[in-house]
Amino acid sequence: MNHPIKKDAFDISRRNFVAGAAGLTFSFALDPVLTGRVSEAFAANEAKLNAWVSIGTDGTVRIICPAAEMGQGVLTSLPLILAEELDADWSKVKAEFAPANPKLYGNPHPLFKGAQITAASVSVPGYYTPLRIAGAQARRVLIDSVAAHWKVPASELTTNRGYVIHAKTGRRISYGDVAKFAQVPAELPKITEADLKKPEQFRLIGRRNIGRVDVPSKTNGSAQYAIDVQVPGMIYASVLESPMEGAKAQVTNMEEVTKIKGVTRVLPLPFGVAVLGDTVEATQRGRNALKVNWDTSGAVSKDFDSVKAKEEYARAGRDPNAKTMDAYKVGDAPAALKGAAKVVEATYWSEYCYHAQMEPMTAVAKVAEDGQSADIWVGTQFGALAANIISGILKTTPDKIRIHQQMLGGGFGRRIWPDAAIQATILSNITKKPVKLILTREDDLAAARPRPMTHHILKAGLDANGKLIAWHHRLVSENVDAVASPPRFKATGGRDYIGWRGLDQEFYSIPNVLADAVREERGMRVHAWRGIGSGYNKFAAEAFLDEVAQAAGTDPLT
User: Fold this and answer.
1) Are 528 and 498 in contact (CB under 8 A)?
2) For residue range 249-285, what is the model confidence (pLDDT) as tens digits?
3) Per residue in 101-112, pLDDT tens?
4) Max Cα distance, the chain (Å)
5) What's the N-to-C CA distance of the chain in angstroms?
6) Which residues on neighbouring strands pair with residue 166, listed in sequence order?
7) Which of 196, 307, 509, 518 has the most CB atoms lying inside 10 A of its own CB?
C-alpha cells in the first residue's frame, strides 16, 4: 500500500548582583552545571545586562524573556511564571528580550541542555521551574531587606501584588520603595521546589483574564519586526539567491544593473548576487534586472530531481543490504517478524516542505569600522548561533556580536539558521555601512531550507492471537543534522538528532522494535520544520498503527 502524505533544587549560589539608586537587579544562571561560572560570564559581558528581573524605584518590574516571540506567547508566559513567585503586580511588569548569552539564558530542557534556542515547543517546560525559583529567590531578598530595614522577623512578612506586608503593624511597602534601600547579598538564599507556591496559591498562572502582552502592539501596528528596523545611515540590499549550494554566479549585465537609479553596487558572492542601493525599490529593480549564468559544476545537487529520486529512495528502503544506522531498538524485531503469524506492511512519503513564514527573511547588520564587532537586528530562534557564526566571519568573539532580538513574523524552524543575518553582516563589512537585507517571498522560497523529502517502509508482525509483537520502521532521507548542525552530526557519529525524532516507540508495549535510517546525500539545504522529524515519522507510525489494527480486526485506540 502506498500512502502519500502531503532537580529538586537549582543551585544558584555565588550569584553576582547589581544594585543602585535606580533599583534592584537579580541575576541567575539556570543550568546547574554552570554553578561557579557565572562570574566568568559576567566578566565576559560587562557591558551587557545579565539579569532575570529588575525592580525600578517607580515599581516597574522588568523581567527578561530568554525565548523568541514568534506567535506562541512566550513574552507573556515566561515572565508570568517568574512574576507569580515574585508576587509582582502584573500591571507593572515589563518584558524584554534577553541578549544572546546561553551561559545565563540557556534552556535547561534535556533537548537543549543549556542552548539558548527557541524550538520544539519546550520554552515553558524548560524554563518553568527555574523561573519560579528565580522569582521566589528575588521575593526572599525583598522580604529579608524589609525585615532588616523595619527590624522585624522575616517570618512575619508576606507579599502581595508588588507589596511587602507586615500584618502585625499594618505596614506595607511597595517593591519600588524597597528598591531604594534593598541590598542584594552576594550569596542569594537557597530555594528548592518545596519552597515554591502550591498551584492553589497561584494568583497569575492559570488566570483566564490575563491577555497576551504582545497582542496590543500587533493590533495597533507598533510591534517591531526585523523588517521594520531603521538605522541611521542604512543602505538596502536584495539578493538573488544561489539556486543550490556550491553554485557560482557570473553576472553578464553588471554595468547595466548598476546604472539603475538608486542602485549603488552589485556583488557576486558565494550565497548569490547582492544588489545594494538607496531604497528597497531600487534594490528590487536591480535584482529583477540581473542576468546570471550559474556554474553548478561544484554543486552536489546539480542533477537532483526529486520526482526521479523517489524511485531511488524506494529502492534503498527495500534493499536488505542498504547501509543503515539504528535510531531506536528494543528486542529483536527482524527475528520476531520472521516468526510472526501475520505481517502487515505499508509505505509512506512526505514531500519537501517550505516554511512559508509570514515575514520573509530579513536582518539589519552594522559592523564596526574595525570589523571587530557588530550590531545585528533580527528576529531569530537562535541568537547565540548567529553570534557564534558571525563572530567567526569577522574573526572576533561572540560577546562582540550584539544581537538585538525582534519579534518574529513566523518561525517554524526557518529562523534557526541565521542566513539573513550572516549575509547582511558580510555586506555591511564590505561597505562599512549598516545594511538592511530584505528577501522577497520568491527569493525566500529560493533560499528555503526545507523539511526533507522522506520515504518510510513500515512492517508489523502479529502473533496468532493478533497481538502486535514486532515493528520495523525504515526511514530514507537526507540527514538534517549534517546540514543544520555539522558539529553535532560529527560528535554523534553521523546520527540525525533532528530528522530521526519520532522514530522511537516508547509509548507502546511492543516487545520487538527496530527503527533504522538510510542516509541520502542530495545536496539540499534541509533543516528543521515545525515538529522536526516527528512531523513525518510519527504521522507515518500512527497512520500505520491504524492499518495494523484493521488487519488484526481490532479498534486502533484499544
Assistant:
1) yes
2) 999 999 999 999 999 999 999 999 999 999 999 999 9
3) 999 999 999 989
4) 84
5) 23
6) 157, 171
7) 518
